[in-house]
Write a structure and sequence with these properties.
By secondary structure, the protein is α/β, with parallel strands linked by helices. The chain is built from 23 helices and twelve strands. The longest helix is centred in the N-terminal third of the chain and has 26 residues.
């Protein structure tokens, strides 16, 4: 797809967004209503996208959307299934306002019919199984509307459809809630009322109870400040829709896979830095230092990227928002895991420390070598004038253990989420052991958010041992631009005076970063596949050519093993169990310490 096609699609989207907003405001009569048009619906079905916007305005006109949103959240808080409850609410809301919209605005009827037809065509290539009562009910409702009430269904579905149709007479939001609640308790979970209470019990859930619950897992986006408020907003935006959002997402992903370009406006880019600060903590660099690093590192393949250097939201927050509390909770989980495995961790630290000490002792042993200066060796004096090898002196060479520096760089993308605590533990073991033998080292993690590669520094090279506990601040999110992270960490490492420089990289073998380009971007190619692998491998080879020893430790899926080998070559280790991370790294470090010793 060329630039002209992209611009045409963007203009088409903006035009539809404006049309949906105008329809919503006109139908509701409330020009203060906020709406987020679903961009992904535009290319799926114009009718669905426009009708969805109209329904949002109509629902706000006839009912209390905030009350409905809170009911859904409270019901889910009491263990109702989010997907099924939302689907039932969507069907009930359609019955409550669908005919009202067509009476008030006859022109909507044709758009409504087209939207129903598109949903049936796109979502139901075959009849749902008998066990999928929700799917069968949705088909029954849509076909009945399209046939002007003439669609016949089996008795098991008709019972629930008749109950659903009571929503047409709901005079206010409370009446509508009673119908939704009753339908859920009868159709989806007959034991719900006995276990968790009736509608009055649901509505009596307090805001304090809701605020204490962790809603982050329910959110569709990674970035949030107040998870409860974001979740309520997410539900209220979805509750008037009828389409299957999963299908919409799949269709949108396929489209993005073909084109893989996301363009942010200058205004959005200005806001993005603020969002990064809010979610990852303030940067520790001055504006001048930050500008310099971006100028030096973000070139060629990374020319439309930015770097962000932080010590984490817990160390330097902009404010104590939801993300701060989320990071705090994850740190506590990491620390609890450490306490659960305290004995094992201490034993591993002791073993790795001993291994490194032995290697250092071997390196510092004194060696005697023949030389052209030093202490004379009487037995070799006869060689003078008789042999070209007339070195008659001996000299002691003492190994030096102070010429080592280590960088540990950990992938903190979302793919590491399932082993987050274990990764933190292993990095802590390595850092503690290096501290015990007084080898300067730095520990960092990396991920990408929008066009920012976030480098989270847990400890600096010369930090005291106490700084190792910062590693428990390790959290995972978003994507990973491995090449840029390795290039940047390597730049700092090369500035060190130590002769022997070592970089340890833990990754999943999948360098992948969703492309977010500035307007008029020079590098719109997606960072994935061969393109990303080649870049990452190039950065590794470049560092090795400059004298840095680089070890790649792979903790991903076996199918990505070949990719990791391409990136790291001979100095590469595959671990099926993340608990072996510190052992693998320990053996590599010991080997490096013993070389030339």
């Amino acid at each position: 797809m060329n630039k002209a096609d992209n611009l045409e699609i963007e203009e088409y989207k903006l035009d539809l967004e404006n049309r949906i907003r105008n329809l919503l405001w006109t139908v509701s009569g409330d020009y203060t209503l906020k709406i987020k048009p679903d961009v992904s619906l535009f290319l799926r079905s114009r009718a669905i996208a426009l009708y969805d916007g109209i329904k949002q305005g109509a629902f706000a006109k006839y009912y209390d959307k905030e009350l409905m949103g809170l009911y859904l959240v409270k019901k889910i808080f009491l263990q109702a299934d989010e997907r099924d409850l939302t689907a039932l609410a969507q069907l009930c809301i359609e019955e409550a306002i669908g005919e009202k919209i067509c009476r008030d605005r006859p022109g909507v009827k044709e758009m409504q019919s087209q939207a129903f037809s598109d949903i049936l065509d796109q979502e139901f290539e075959e009849m749902p199984s008998e066990g999928d009562m929700l799917g069968r009910l949705k088909i029954a409702v849509l076909r009945d509307r399209l046939s002007e009430g003439e669609h016949k269904v089996e008795k098991s579905v008709k019972i629930y459809r008749d109950l659903l149709y009571q929503a047409r007479q709901a005079e206010d939001t409370m009446e509508l809630l009673k119908i939704i609640d009753s339908l859920y308790n009868r159709m989806i979970d007959p034991s719900f009322e006995q276990q968790h209470g009736d509608l009055s019990k649901v509505l009596s859930v307090t805001m304090e109870e809701l605020m204490e619950y962790g809603w982050e897992d329910y959110l569709s986006e990674d970035m949030y400040e107040d998870a409860l408020a974001q979740y309520v907003e997410q539900l209220t935006a979805n509750m008037t829709s009828l389409e299957d959002s999963g299908l919409t997402e799949d269709m949108d992903k396929k489209r993005k896979t073909r084109h893989k370009i996301t363009v942010l406006s200058p205004e959005a880019l200005e806001k993005s830095y603020t969002y990064v600060e809010l979610n990852y903590g303030r940067t520790y660099l001055t504006p001048g230092e930050e500008k310099k690093m971006n100028y030096l590192m973000c070139r060629e393949i990374h020319s439309d990227c930015s770097l962000y250097f932080t010590e984490g939201i817990l160390k330097n927050p902009v404010k104590r928002n939801y993300q701060y509390e989320y990071a705090k909770r994850l740190r506590n989980k990491n620390v609890w895991l450490y306490h659960d495995k305290h004995r094992s961790v201490k034993r591993n630290i002791a073993n790795l420390t001993e291994l490194l000490k032995i290697s250092l002792v071997l390196r510092t042993e004194t060696q005697e070598v023949l030389s052209d200066r030093g202490t004379i060796v009487p037995s070799r004096v006869w060689r003078v004038g008789r042999s070209p090898e007339a070195r008659i002196f001996k000299r002691e060479l003492k190994g030096d253990a102070s010429d080592f520096v280590v960088d540990v760089l950990i992938d903190a993308s979302g793919s590491q989420m399932s082993r987050q605590g274990e990764v933190a533990l292993q990095a802590y073991i390595i850092s503690e052991s290096l501290s015990n033998v007084e080898i300067p080292h730095r520990v960092s993690s990396f991920c990408t958010f929008w066009d920012y590669t976030i480098l989270h520094r847990f400890r600096r090279y010369e930090d005291p041992r106490e700084a190792n506990e910062n590693i428990f601040d390790y959290v995972t999110s978003s994507n990973n631009r491995d090449g840029l992270a390795i290039k940047t960490i390597g730049y700092d490492l090369l500035q060190r005076e130590e002769e022997k420089k070592i970089l340890i990289v833990l990754s999943d073998g999948r360098p992948y970063d969703v492309v977010v380009n500035r307007p008029n971007a020079k590098n719109p190619k997606p960072y994935e596949g061969f393109y990303a692998i080649s870049d990452t491998a190039t950065q590794v080879r470049r560092l090795r050519n400059l004298g840095v020893s680089v070890l790649g430790v792979f903790a991903g899926e076996e199918k990505d093993l070949a990719t990791e080998k391409k990136i790291f070559g001979k100095d590469f280790a595959y671990i099926r169990d993340i608990s072996n991370f510190s052992k693998i790294v320990g053996k590599y470090l010991a080997r490096q310490l013993e070389m030339d010793g």
